[in-house]
Amino acid sequence: MRLIEAKDFSVIVVVVCVMYLMISVLTNVQDLNDEYTYEYIDEKEIPIPDLKPANGNINADREIKPKTPITSIANQDKTISDLKNSSQNSLDHNIKPALQDCFIVIFIPSMAKSANLRKELRTRWLNRSMWREEEFQGIEQVYLNFKLMFVLGKHQDKEYSKELLEEVDANRDMFLTEFEESKATLKDKLLWALRESVKLYNYTYFVKVDHDTLIDLPNLIKGSITSPKDNLYTGYCNKMLLGSAYKRTFRYCLGGGYIFSRDLVEKIALLEDKETNVEIFPEDGYAGYLAWMVKKKYDLKGNIPQRFGGWRLKIYTKNVIKFTRYFYHWLKNHHKLERMFQCRIKANKTECPSLQYVFENGESKECTCDKSDVEAGEGEN
Question: Angle, nearest 10°, between helix axes 115-123 and 162-170?
């Protein structure tokens, strides 16, 4: 037997090394396949939309996912849980749940302490059963479906209370964010709501109102049906910024009630951070800035904003109200809101053809038809 020469030994070592490398590569490929399969299954099981705000989780300890608002006039749509379960059977784990259909999304910036005001909105003027049925006569069911978005922030170093979380569980219209509660972050709530609305709902109009706005639901729905569906930003739009780098650059609509068409909201949602991160106060002016930005960026034609006569009342010394508007703003307390609502649901053209009514001074809940020549007009915020 001849001795193994050095050159033969070198060949053997090379062959062994090559075989070892081939076995290692095959093993790693199998491991990668197993890992990919595991991640694929995980993603497929949780295909729900991302509902977290831009700057943090909804709640670090308890994630609250919005459900179908109980204020929807039409039949209840599927909840996020229903959509999640149905999408688990999909072959494509990238398919997102279908958007919930509605005609209008109503956004109200809110705070934890405003539970009574939220209850007022849900149970009174945004509840169809509280209005006379003839107010909705002839309106197709597709237009009688709307969603609420109460968007809340947090106070520094304070967790959401047990009572607030119970309200979230009991209702299906509250969105909790990590924005610090202040006037300065109202614009952040607005932009967040605009972006989230197009992810969650298939709607025609986005409406922003305040807590102290009485929403004339029949008038809003009827007026919206005949409104333009494209490039619409409208309300009481007579204001311009008097400060900041955008002084007198564009007009904006007052925050008691204004309307965006969905196509404008979609364009706003696509704006880059460098286009949205601007210091503008108040947040109504920020809404005007966003509309102005997309008009300039996409070279949109027509009047944006477009002023209309459906905004709100002008309150004279004897409180003259003409109930032909969409929004009645600046009603700073519960009693005034309720009195206004009671008068509004009483109003009818048979009794008062002009639909113009008078509140007597004092605490009287009565309202009477105004037969004078003074006409209630629009007022400032």
Answer: 10
The model's pLDDT over 50-105, given as tens digits with 9 standing for 90+, comes to: 333 333 333 333 333 333 333 333 333 333 333 333 333 323 334 456 799 999 99
Q: Which amino acid is at 159?
A: E
Count of Cβ atoms closer than 10 Å to residue 234 Cβ: 24
Expressed in angstroms, the distance from the first to the final Cα of the chain is: 107
Q: How far is CA 192 from the centre of its chain?
A: 8
H-assigned helices in the chain: 6-45, 80-87, 115-123, 162-170, 186-200, 217-225, 262-269, 273-276, 283-297, 334-346
Give the residue from 60, 155, 76, 149 showing the smallest Cα distance to 112: 155
Q: Is 155 helix (H, G, I), strand (E, B) or coil?
A: coil
The pLDDT value given to residue 41: 26
Residue 247, judged by CB atoms within 10 A of its CB (0-12, 13-18, 19+), counts as exposed
Angle subtended at Cα 255 by Cα 219 and Cα 63, rounded to the nearest 5 degrees? 95
The per-residue DSSP string of 205-261 comes to EEEEE-TT-EE-HHHHHHHHHTS-SSS-EEES--EE-SSSTTTTS-EE--TTEEEEE
337 CB-near residues (< 8 Å, 6+ apart): 120, 212, 214, 331
Q: Produce one character per residue of 2-28: b if its CB has 16 or more CB atoms within 10 Å, e if not.
A: eeeeeeeeeeeeeeeeeeeeeeeeeee
Local structure of 8: helix, strand or coil: helix
Q: How far apart are CA 206 and CA 260, in angstroms?
A: 5
Question: CA-CA distance, 136 to 122, in Å (whole number)?
Answer: 18
| Residue pair 100/202 in contact by the 8 Å Cβ criterion | yes
* Alpha-carbon radius of gyration of the chain: 28
Q: Give tens-digit pLDDT for 116-159.
A: 999 989 999 999 999 999 999 999 999 999 999 999 999 887 88
Torsions phi, psi for 251 (to 5 deg): -95, 155
Average pLDDT of the segment spanning 241-262: 93
pTM over 0.85: no
Q: Give the distance from CA 27 to its chain's centroid.
A: 50
What confidence score (pLDDT) does residue 70 get? 34
